[in-house]
Design goal:
Largest sheet: 5 strands, antiparallel
Order of helices and strands: HHHHHHHEHHHEHHEEEEHEHH
Structural class: alpha+beta
Distance between the termini: 28 Å
Protein backbone atom coordinates (compact mmCIF):
# COMPACT_ATOMS: atom_id res chain seq x y z
CA UNK A 1 0.00 0.00 0.00
CA UNK A 2 1.55 3.29 -1.10
CA UNK A 3 0.67 6.95 -1.72
CA UNK A 4 -1.04 6.26 -5.06
CA UNK A 5 -3.55 4.00 -3.29
CA UNK A 6 -5.01 7.05 -1.55
CA UNK A 7 -6.85 7.78 -4.82
CA UNK A 8 -8.80 4.53 -4.60
CA UNK A 9 -11.56 5.77 -2.25
CA UNK A 10 -12.53 8.49 -4.74
CA UNK A 11 -12.58 6.07 -7.68
CA UNK A 12 -14.60 3.48 -5.76
CA UNK A 13 -16.93 6.17 -4.43
CA UNK A 14 -17.81 7.24 -7.96
CA UNK A 15 -18.42 3.68 -9.14
CA UNK A 16 -20.44 2.83 -6.02
CA UNK A 17 -22.64 5.92 -6.28
CA UNK A 18 -23.33 5.10 -9.92
CA UNK A 19 -24.45 1.55 -9.02
CA UNK A 20 -26.63 2.85 -6.20
CA UNK A 21 -28.25 5.46 -8.43
CA UNK A 22 -29.07 2.90 -11.12
CA UNK A 23 -30.73 0.60 -8.56
CA UNK A 24 -32.61 3.44 -6.83
CA UNK A 25 -33.84 4.84 -10.14
CA UNK A 26 -35.10 1.42 -11.27
CA UNK A 27 -36.73 0.86 -7.86
CA UNK A 28 -38.55 4.17 -8.09
CA UNK A 29 -39.71 3.60 -11.70
CA UNK A 30 -41.22 0.24 -10.81
CA UNK A 31 -43.72 1.87 -8.42
CA UNK A 32 -47.09 1.92 -10.18
CA UNK A 33 -49.37 2.69 -7.18
CA UNK A 34 -49.35 5.09 -4.25
CA UNK A 35 -47.03 4.25 -1.36
CA UNK A 36 -49.82 4.00 1.19
CA UNK A 37 -51.54 1.24 -0.80
CA UNK A 38 -48.39 -0.87 -1.07
CA UNK A 39 -47.74 -3.48 1.63
CA UNK A 40 -44.42 -5.13 2.51
CA UNK A 41 -44.90 -7.90 -0.03
CA UNK A 42 -45.54 -5.32 -2.72
CA UNK A 43 -42.33 -3.44 -1.86
CA UNK A 44 -40.38 -6.71 -1.90
CA UNK A 45 -41.82 -7.59 -5.31
CA UNK A 46 -40.95 -4.11 -6.58
CA UNK A 47 -37.38 -4.49 -5.30
CA UNK A 48 -37.13 -7.78 -7.18
CA UNK A 49 -38.31 -6.18 -10.41
CA UNK A 50 -35.90 -3.28 -9.89
CA UNK A 51 -32.94 -5.61 -9.42
CA UNK A 52 -34.09 -7.58 -12.45
CA UNK A 53 -33.84 -4.36 -14.46
CA UNK A 54 -30.78 -2.73 -12.85
CA UNK A 55 -28.91 -5.82 -11.69
CA UNK A 56 -27.84 -6.77 -15.19
CA UNK A 57 -26.62 -3.23 -15.83
CA UNK A 58 -24.46 -2.95 -12.69
CA UNK A 59 -23.21 -6.51 -13.15
CA UNK A 60 -21.96 -5.79 -16.67
CA UNK A 61 -20.31 -2.49 -15.72
CA UNK A 62 -18.78 -3.98 -12.56
CA UNK A 63 -17.50 -7.02 -14.45
CA UNK A 64 -15.85 -4.90 -17.15
CA UNK A 65 -14.25 -2.60 -14.55
CA UNK A 66 -13.09 -5.55 -12.47
CA UNK A 67 -11.56 -7.36 -15.45
CA UNK A 68 -9.87 -4.20 -16.73
CA UNK A 69 -8.21 -3.57 -13.36
CA UNK A 70 -7.42 -7.27 -12.89
CA UNK A 71 -5.58 -7.35 -16.22
CA UNK A 72 -3.58 -4.27 -15.28
CA UNK A 73 -2.60 -5.93 -11.98
CA UNK A 74 -0.26 -8.10 -14.10
CA UNK A 75 1.81 -4.97 -14.86
CA UNK A 76 5.57 -5.16 -14.36
CA UNK A 77 5.35 -1.89 -12.41
CA UNK A 78 4.79 -2.92 -8.76
CA UNK A 79 2.94 0.27 -7.77
CA UNK A 80 0.52 0.01 -10.71
CA UNK A 81 0.05 -3.72 -10.18
CA UNK A 82 -0.79 -3.29 -6.51
CA UNK A 83 -3.13 -0.36 -7.18
CA UNK A 84 -5.09 -2.31 -9.81
CA UNK A 85 -5.31 -5.40 -7.60
CA UNK A 86 -6.79 -3.34 -4.76
CA UNK A 87 -9.19 -1.66 -7.20
CA UNK A 88 -10.47 -4.93 -8.69
CA UNK A 89 -11.15 -6.35 -5.21
CA UNK A 90 -12.88 -3.11 -4.20
CA UNK A 91 -15.11 -3.17 -7.29
CA UNK A 92 -16.24 -6.71 -6.51
CA UNK A 93 -17.31 -5.72 -3.02
CA UNK A 94 -19.03 -2.59 -4.36
CA UNK A 95 -21.15 -4.81 -6.60
CA UNK A 96 -21.85 -7.26 -3.78
CA UNK A 97 -22.90 -4.56 -1.29
CA UNK A 98 -24.96 -2.69 -3.90
CA UNK A 99 -26.94 -5.84 -4.71
CA UNK A 100 -27.45 -6.81 -1.06
CA UNK A 101 -26.89 -4.26 1.71
CA UNK A 102 -27.87 -1.16 -0.27
CA UNK A 103 -31.02 -2.82 -1.60
CA UNK A 104 -32.01 -3.87 1.92
CA UNK A 105 -31.47 -0.33 3.21
CA UNK A 106 -33.51 1.04 0.30
CA UNK A 107 -36.37 -1.32 1.23
CA UNK A 108 -36.31 -0.07 4.82
CA UNK A 109 -36.29 3.56 3.66
CA UNK A 110 -39.25 2.89 1.36
CA UNK A 111 -41.21 1.59 4.35
CA UNK A 112 -40.26 4.76 6.24
CA UNK A 113 -41.66 6.92 3.48
CA UNK A 114 -44.81 4.79 3.26
CA UNK A 115 -45.38 5.16 7.01
CA UNK A 116 -44.85 8.94 6.74
CA UNK A 117 -41.84 8.97 9.09
CA UNK A 118 -39.16 11.65 9.16
CA UNK A 119 -35.79 11.18 7.47
CA UNK A 120 -33.31 11.46 10.34
CA UNK A 121 -35.74 10.78 13.20
CA UNK A 122 -37.43 7.78 11.64
CA UNK A 123 -39.09 6.89 14.95
CA UNK A 124 -41.12 10.12 14.72
CA UNK A 125 -44.14 10.35 12.42
CA UNK A 126 -45.11 13.54 10.64
CA UNK A 127 -48.23 15.17 12.05
CA UNK A 128 -49.67 15.91 8.60
CA UNK A 129 -50.54 12.76 6.67
CA UNK A 130 -50.83 14.67 3.38
CA UNK A 131 -53.90 12.65 2.36
CA UNK A 132 -54.63 14.89 -0.60
CA UNK A 133 -51.11 14.41 -1.99
CA UNK A 134 -51.39 10.69 -1.40
CA UNK A 135 -54.60 10.59 -3.45
CA UNK A 136 -52.74 12.20 -6.35
CA UNK A 137 -49.78 9.86 -5.95
CA UNK A 138 -50.56 7.03 -8.34
CA UNK A 139 -46.97 5.96 -9.02
CA UNK A 140 -43.47 7.21 -9.76
CA UNK A 141 -43.21 10.60 -11.45
CA UNK A 142 -40.68 11.49 -14.12
CA UNK A 143 -37.96 13.85 -12.90
CA UNK A 144 -36.78 16.99 -14.63
CA UNK A 145 -33.60 15.42 -15.94
CA UNK A 146 -35.47 12.47 -17.43
CA UNK A 147 -38.00 14.85 -18.92
CA UNK A 148 -35.25 16.93 -20.52
CA UNK A 149 -33.58 13.91 -22.14
CA UNK A 150 -36.93 12.49 -23.34
CA UNK A 151 -38.47 15.70 -24.67
CA UNK A 152 -35.50 17.74 -25.86
CA UNK A 153 -32.14 16.00 -25.88
CA UNK A 154 -33.01 12.73 -27.66
CA UNK A 155 -35.15 14.38 -30.40
CA UNK A 156 -32.44 16.97 -31.02
CA UNK A 157 -29.52 14.56 -31.52
CA UNK A 158 -31.65 12.10 -33.53
CA UNK A 159 -32.84 14.72 -35.99
CA UNK A 160 -30.98 15.08 -39.31
CA UNK A 161 -29.19 18.33 -38.34
CA UNK A 162 -28.46 16.85 -34.90
CA UNK A 163 -26.92 13.72 -36.39
CA UNK A 164 -24.73 15.83 -38.67
CA UNK A 165 -23.53 18.01 -35.77
CA UNK A 166 -22.82 14.99 -33.54
CA UNK A 167 -20.85 13.20 -36.28
CA UNK A 168 -18.89 16.35 -37.12
CA UNK A 169 -18.02 17.21 -33.50
CA UNK A 170 -17.07 13.69 -32.49
CA UNK A 171 -15.10 13.09 -35.69
CA UNK A 172 -13.05 16.17 -34.83
CA UNK A 173 -12.62 14.98 -31.24
CA UNK A 174 -11.58 11.52 -32.40
CA UNK A 175 -9.12 12.97 -34.90
CA UNK A 176 -7.48 15.08 -32.22
CA UNK A 177 -7.59 12.08 -29.88
CA UNK A 178 -5.56 10.01 -32.35
CA UNK A 179 -3.07 12.86 -32.79
CA UNK A 180 -2.66 13.33 -29.05
CA UNK A 181 -2.43 9.59 -28.31
CA UNK A 182 0.33 9.14 -30.90
CA UNK A 183 2.31 12.11 -29.58
CA UNK A 184 1.63 11.50 -25.88
CA UNK A 185 5.10 11.68 -24.26
CA UNK A 186 6.38 9.98 -21.15
CA UNK A 187 7.38 12.78 -18.80
CA UNK A 188 8.91 12.98 -15.36
CA UNK A 189 6.27 14.86 -13.32
CA UNK A 190 8.30 14.90 -10.11
CA UNK A 191 8.56 18.68 -10.15
CA UNK A 192 4.76 19.00 -10.28
CA UNK A 193 4.59 17.74 -6.69
CA UNK A 194 6.43 20.84 -5.46
CA UNK A 195 4.04 23.68 -4.40
CA UNK A 196 4.09 26.59 -6.86
CA UNK A 197 5.25 29.11 -4.26
CA UNK A 198 8.02 26.97 -2.80
CA UNK A 199 11.60 28.25 -2.74
CA UNK A 200 12.65 24.86 -4.10
CA UNK A 201 11.30 25.84 -7.52
CA UNK A 202 13.54 28.93 -7.52
CA UNK A 203 16.53 26.77 -6.60
CA UNK A 204 15.79 24.29 -9.40
CA UNK A 205 15.29 27.07 -11.96
CA UNK A 206 18.63 28.66 -11.03
CA UNK A 207 20.37 25.28 -11.18
CA UNK A 208 18.92 24.69 -14.65
CA UNK A 209 20.17 28.10 -15.81
CA UNK A 210 23.62 28.31 -14.23
CA UNK A 211 24.65 24.66 -13.87
CA UNK A 212 23.41 22.92 -17.03
CA UNK A 213 26.32 20.44 -16.91
CA UNK A 214 25.45 19.23 -13.39
CA UNK A 215 22.86 16.52 -13.12
CA UNK A 216 22.12 13.20 -11.47
CA UNK A 217 25.00 11.30 -9.83
CA UNK A 218 25.90 7.74 -10.77
CA UNK A 219 28.68 5.28 -10.02
CA UNK A 220 30.46 2.50 -11.88
CA UNK A 221 31.20 -0.31 -9.44
CA UNK A 222 34.12 -2.68 -10.17
CA UNK A 223 34.27 -6.10 -8.50
CA UNK A 224 37.06 -8.54 -7.54
CA UNK A 225 40.07 -6.97 -5.85
CA UNK A 226 42.68 -9.03 -7.70
CA UNK A 227 41.23 -7.98 -11.06
CA UNK A 228 41.17 -4.38 -9.89
CA UNK A 229 44.87 -4.59 -9.06
CA UNK A 230 45.73 -6.31 -12.33
CA UNK A 231 43.92 -3.57 -14.31
CA UNK A 232 45.15 -0.70 -12.13
CA UNK A 233 46.66 1.27 -15.01
CA UNK A 234 43.52 1.07 -17.13
CA UNK A 235 41.31 2.00 -14.17
CA UNK A 236 43.52 4.97 -13.26
CA UNK A 237 43.15 6.21 -16.86
CA UNK A 238 39.38 5.64 -16.95
CA UNK A 239 38.75 9.33 -17.65
CA UNK A 240 40.04 8.79 -21.19
CA UNK A 241 37.09 6.49 -21.89
CA UNK A 242 34.61 8.95 -20.36
CA UNK A 243 35.67 12.05 -22.24
CA UNK A 244 33.39 13.39 -24.98
CA UNK A 245 30.21 11.66 -23.79
CA UNK A 246 28.30 14.75 -22.62
CA UNK A 247 26.59 15.83 -25.85
CA UNK A 248 25.02 12.50 -26.81
CA UNK A 249 23.92 9.35 -25.01
CA UNK A 250 25.05 8.35 -22.41
CA UNK A 251 25.23 12.09 -21.56
CA UNK A 252 27.95 11.66 -18.92
CA UNK A 253 29.48 14.96 -17.80
CA UNK A 254 33.07 15.64 -18.78
CA UNK A 255 35.50 14.19 -16.17
CA UNK A 256 37.24 17.51 -15.59
CA UNK A 257 36.27 18.31 -12.00
CA UNK A 258 35.95 16.59 -8.64
CA UNK A 259 32.15 16.99 -8.69
CA UNK A 260 31.78 15.16 -12.01
CA UNK A 261 34.56 12.56 -11.66
CA UNK A 262 35.97 10.91 -8.56
CA UNK A 263 38.35 7.98 -9.05
CA UNK A 264 40.48 6.68 -6.18
CA UNK A 265 42.79 4.82 -8.54
CA UNK A 266 43.65 8.08 -10.32
CA UNK A 267 44.20 9.81 -6.98
CA UNK A 268 46.49 7.06 -5.65
CA UNK A 269 48.50 6.94 -8.89
CA UNK A 270 49.14 10.69 -8.78
CA UNK A 271 49.99 10.59 -5.05
CA UNK A 272 52.48 7.73 -5.39
CA UNK A 273 54.09 9.38 -8.41
CA UNK A 274 54.63 12.63 -6.54
CA UNK A 275 55.12 11.59 -2.88
CA UNK A 276 56.01 7.91 -2.87
CA UNK A 277 54.60 5.34 -0.45
CA UNK A 278 56.19 6.48 2.82
CA UNK A 279 53.02 8.18 4.10
CA UNK A 280 50.74 5.28 3.11
CA UNK A 281 52.50 2.20 4.46
CA UNK A 282 55.97 2.41 2.91
CA UNK A 283 55.59 -0.61 0.64
CA UNK A 284 57.96 -1.21 -2.23
CA UNK A 285 56.90 0.34 -5.54
CA UNK A 286 57.65 -1.10 -8.95
CA UNK A 287 58.86 0.65 -12.06
CA UNK A 288 55.29 1.76 -12.76
CA UNK A 289 55.06 3.47 -9.32
CA UNK A 290 52.47 0.94 -8.10
CA UNK A 291 52.82 -1.58 -5.25
CA UNK A 292 54.46 -4.79 -6.50
CA UNK A 293 51.86 -7.20 -5.04
CA UNK A 294 48.13 -7.34 -4.49
CA UNK A 295 48.58 -7.51 -0.70
CA UNK A 296 50.75 -4.37 -0.72
CA UNK A 297 48.21 -2.67 -2.96
CA UNK A 298 45.38 -3.37 -0.48
CA UNK A 299 47.50 -2.10 2.44
CA UNK A 300 48.45 1.05 0.53
CA UNK A 301 44.87 1.75 -0.52
CA UNK A 302 43.58 1.31 3.05
CA UNK A 303 46.15 3.76 4.40
CA UNK A 304 45.58 6.19 1.54
CA UNK A 305 41.79 6.28 2.01
CA UNK A 306 41.79 6.12 5.82
CA UNK A 307 40.26 8.88 7.93
CA UNK A 308 43.67 10.54 8.37
CA UNK A 309 45.09 9.54 4.98
CA UNK A 310 45.76 11.89 2.06
CA UNK A 311 42.96 10.25 0.04
CA UNK A 312 40.31 10.28 2.78
CA UNK A 313 37.84 11.77 0.28
CA UNK A 314 37.74 8.30 -1.31
CA UNK A 315 37.12 6.50 1.99
CA UNK A 316 33.57 5.47 1.08
CA UNK A 317 34.48 4.25 -2.39
CA UNK A 318 35.77 0.83 -1.26
CA UNK A 319 34.20 -2.28 0.24
CA UNK A 320 36.56 -4.72 1.94
CA UNK A 321 36.22 -8.30 3.11
CA UNK A 322 35.36 -8.92 6.76
CA UNK A 323 39.02 -9.21 7.77
CA UNK A 324 39.85 -6.24 5.48
CA UNK A 325 42.53 -8.28 3.73
CA UNK A 326 41.05 -7.93 0.25
CA UNK A 327 38.93 -5.53 -1.79
CA UNK A 328 35.45 -6.70 -2.76
CA UNK A 329 34.33 -3.63 -4.70
CA UNK A 330 35.41 -0.15 -5.61
CA UNK A 331 33.38 2.57 -7.28
CA UNK A 332 34.03 5.52 -9.55
CA UNK A 333 31.64 8.43 -9.04
CA UNK A 334 30.37 10.24 -12.13
CA UNK A 335 27.61 12.64 -13.04
CA UNK A 336 25.16 13.04 -15.90
CA UNK A 337 24.63 16.40 -17.54
CA UNK A 338 21.30 18.03 -16.67
CA UNK A 339 18.76 16.16 -18.80
CA UNK A 340 15.87 18.61 -19.06
CA UNK A 341 13.69 20.11 -21.76
CA UNK A 342 11.28 22.99 -22.13
CA UNK A 343 7.63 22.02 -22.42
CA UNK A 344 4.98 24.74 -22.84
CA UNK A 345 7.12 27.32 -21.13
CA UNK A 346 8.21 25.07 -18.25
CA UNK A 347 11.48 23.24 -17.73
CA UNK A 348 10.85 19.55 -17.02
CA UNK A 349 12.98 16.43 -16.87
CA UNK A 350 13.49 14.86 -20.29
CA UNK A 351 12.38 11.26 -19.74
CA UNK A 352 13.35 10.15 -23.27
CA UNK A 353 16.95 11.28 -22.86
CA UNK A 354 17.10 9.82 -19.35
CA UNK A 355 16.13 6.43 -20.78
CA UNK A 356 18.78 6.75 -23.51
CA UNK A 357 21.38 7.75 -20.92
CA UNK A 358 20.59 4.75 -18.71
CA UNK A 359 20.61 2.23 -21.57
CA UNK A 360 23.78 3.58 -23.18
CA UNK A 361 25.63 3.75 -19.85
CA UNK A 362 24.87 0.10 -19.14
CA UNK A 363 25.82 -0.92 -22.68
CA UNK A 364 29.10 1.01 -22.43
CA UNK A 365 30.12 -0.64 -19.14
CA UNK A 366 29.19 -4.10 -20.45
CA UNK A 367 31.42 -3.50 -23.49
CA UNK A 368 34.53 -3.00 -21.32
CA UNK A 369 35.81 -6.55 -21.69
CA UNK A 370 39.35 -5.54 -20.77
CA UNK A 371 38.33 -4.24 -17.31
CA UNK A 372 37.09 -6.02 -14.17
CA UNK A 373 33.41 -6.97 -14.10
CA UNK A 374 31.32 -3.93 -13.26
CA UNK A 375 27.79 -2.63 -12.89
CA UNK A 376 26.23 0.83 -12.89
CA UNK A 377 24.23 2.26 -10.00
CA UNK A 378 22.08 5.41 -10.00
CA UNK A 379 19.23 6.23 -7.63
CA UNK A 380 17.29 7.80 -10.50
CA UNK A 381 17.23 4.49 -12.40
CA UNK A 382 14.28 3.37 -10.29
CA UNK A 383 12.12 6.08 -11.86
CA UNK A 384 13.70 5.79 -15.30
CA UNK A 385 12.97 2.06 -15.46
CA UNK A 386 9.31 2.97 -14.95
CA UNK A 387 9.43 5.55 -17.75
CA UNK A 388 10.96 2.92 -20.03
CA UNK A 389 8.08 0.45 -19.73
CA UNK A 390 5.12 2.68 -18.89
CA UNK A 391 4.19 3.54 -22.48
CA UNK A 392 4.33 -0.10 -23.56
CA UNK A 393 2.31 -1.04 -20.45
CA UNK A 394 -0.26 1.63 -21.27
CA UNK A 395 -1.05 0.42 -24.78
CA UNK A 396 -0.82 -3.24 -23.81
CA UNK A 397 -3.18 -2.93 -20.84
CA UNK A 398 -5.62 -0.70 -22.71
CA UNK A 399 -5.75 -3.16 -25.62
CA UNK A 400 -6.31 -6.15 -23.34
CA UNK A 401 -8.97 -4.28 -21.35
CA UNK A 402 -10.90 -3.36 -24.53
CA UNK A 403 -10.74 -6.99 -25.71
CA UNK A 404 -12.10 -8.25 -22.37
CA UNK A 405 -14.86 -5.63 -22.42
CA UNK A 406 -15.85 -6.87 -25.87
CA UNK A 407 -16.05 -10.48 -24.67
CA UNK A 408 -18.03 -9.63 -21.53
CA UNK A 409 -20.48 -7.39 -23.40
CA UNK A 410 -20.97 -10.03 -26.11
CA UNK A 411 -21.74 -12.68 -23.49
CA UNK A 412 -24.13 -10.51 -21.47
CA UNK A 413 -25.85 -8.63 -24.29
CA UNK A 414 -26.07 -11.60 -26.61
CA UNK A 415 -26.12 -9.49 -29.78
CA UNK A 416 -22.99 -9.24 -31.91
CA UNK A 417 -23.75 -5.87 -33.51
CA UNK A 418 -24.74 -4.29 -30.20
CA UNK A 419 -21.59 -5.65 -28.54
CA UNK A 420 -19.48 -4.36 -31.44
CA UNK A 421 -20.97 -0.86 -31.22
CA UNK A 422 -20.43 -0.75 -27.44
CA UNK A 423 -16.82 -1.89 -27.78
CA UNK A 424 -16.12 0.67 -30.52
CA UNK A 425 -17.57 3.45 -28.36
CA UNK A 426 -15.42 2.38 -25.40
CA UNK A 427 -12.32 2.34 -27.62
CA UNK A 428 -13.15 5.79 -29.03
CA UNK A 429 -13.58 7.20 -25.53
CA UNK A 430 -10.20 5.81 -24.45
CA UNK A 431 -8.48 7.25 -27.54
CA UNK A 432 -10.01 10.67 -26.83
CA UNK A 433 -8.97 10.52 -23.18
CA UNK A 434 -5.38 9.73 -24.18
CA UNK A 435 -5.48 12.51 -26.76
CA UNK A 436 -6.64 15.13 -24.32
CA UNK A 437 -4.04 13.98 -21.79
CA UNK A 438 -1.57 15.29 -24.37
CA UNK A 439 -3.38 18.63 -24.42
CA UNK A 440 -3.65 18.93 -20.63
Amino acid sequence: YGPVHSLLPFILLGIGVDDSFVIANAFDRERKVSRSSENDDGVIARAGRALGRAGASITVTSATDLVAFAISSSSSLPALSSFCAYASIGIFFLWAFSATFFTACMFIDEKRQRDNRRDCLCCVKRSDDNEEEDDLDKGAKEGRISTYFRKYHAPAILSKPGKAVVLLVFSALFGYGIYGAINLPVEDSERNFIPSGSYINDYIDLADEYFPSSGVSLSINFENGQDIYDKRVELANLSERLTGLSTAAPYIAEPNSESSYQNAMTGLRDFLASSGSAAVGGVTLGDDNWPTSYEDFVLTMKNYTSFTGPGRVYGRDFSYSEDRSSIRLYKVDLEYVRLTKENRGEVIADAARQIDAMDETRAMVESWDDLPSAFVFCEQYLSIEGFKVIQQELYQNVGLAIACVAVIVLITVGNFMAALLITINVALCIVEILGFMFAA
